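Worked example 2:
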Amino acid sequence: MSFILKGKLVDVNNNNQPLSAYTIKAFDKEPIIDIFGDQPLGSSVTLDDGTFNIHLTKDSFRKPLEFWESDKEPNIYLKVYDPDGNLFNETPVLSTPFKSYKIPDEINQCETVVVGSGFGGTITSLSLVNKYVKDDWSLSDPQKRKVVLLERGQWWVSHELPSSPGANELEPSKSMREFLETNDIPYRTWPYPDNIIGLTQFLNTIRVVDRRGLYDFRISSKVHTIAGSGVGGGSLVYTNVTEEPDENVINSWDTELNLGINYNNLSKYFDMASGFIGVNKIATTTALGTSKLPKTKAFQDAAKQILAESPGIVKNKPTFDPTDPDQKDFVEDIFAANLSITDIPQRKDQNTLFTQPSPPPPPVPTPPNLYKTVLSSIQSDPKMQEKLAILRRKYFGEPNVCERQGRCALGCIPGARHTNNKKLFDYLKDQYKSKQFVVRPLCEVYDVEPLVGGASTYNYKVYYMMFYD
């Protein structure tokens, strides 16, 4: 059974003014005595309007070393802490009965059901939403076709994402975390497996331990794989390497498997896919200098040895363009991989595009207008227009940068990775696309039944289990 504890914190002595950035912690009070003390259940931070919610499950009330289920009702009380971490107030045991969490009104009929929110499911869903929004523009909302995306896992976000838009002055719109909280959608934050507690949290995210866990470890005779179980699918657990397959590999799909797919008819889509995912080449030095990380040096030494033994095996495309006169003081890194992650040299790219003109000779008091000069170049120079388009694609939608934490498969804390859940979130917060798009987390499909005959215009019935309860 799942519960959601919701409330609003206000200052009754100041016209019920909302209190934001306060921490609310829930506890289960023991009626007599408990050597472990009152059980902490969960916590939340109040938003700008003072609201908060805490998601609880029946396991939240289980005590340490208690491996059985108890039928007793919890005695929940709250502790409120101000933004400085000082205890502000403590409530008595709450007497309001709790109601089990129920999914909002479900769409029983829709045009399309997509199972799984991995790369294939996300791209298919968003492509269909774009088509339906365009084709159904003149229809009323009830008549618009809808896409329902069913995902067995839940949302996973970085704990550094603000819960309130006021916490991020540069991005006043709702963050993913606030969107999930205000819509009562369960989510978890990435664990820190760098100490005993963090390692325990990490192990608890494995699906054999927790059905809502993220990591699905599968073992076969020759290949071991880690699959993702969350909104975003495999994009949440892969290590971001997004390299174009070798031409011989793609051609073998046609010559050996007779799939009708070869490099000539597929290669034109690589740039399109790279633009959708967001691919940048990350150098193998540290973020703050030219020295290499120890693990980077170890991999590069191994790669150099392989390259010496098998010349030509390193297939990375050159990052140096001899036809571009603007590339200066550039040393090519043949081991730099294409990653679906935000690039580091944002300031470098800006300085390359918006080149500062030479200072005028005295006694001119001010330099020429930099932005007027750049605007003139953009209007007349197609190469400058292309550079500006690349700059916007790289940084307009994804401001966070890679900090070289090496946590790509464990969950990027600064949120620099390009993952499918970000693409899905962009559509869910869009005022038009959200009318024709629904994401159902914690819903595992177990059967699809084709409908034959009858008056129904729907061709399939999809059966799935919800893990909210």
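The longest helix spans residues 119-135. The first strand starts at residue 2 and ends at 8.
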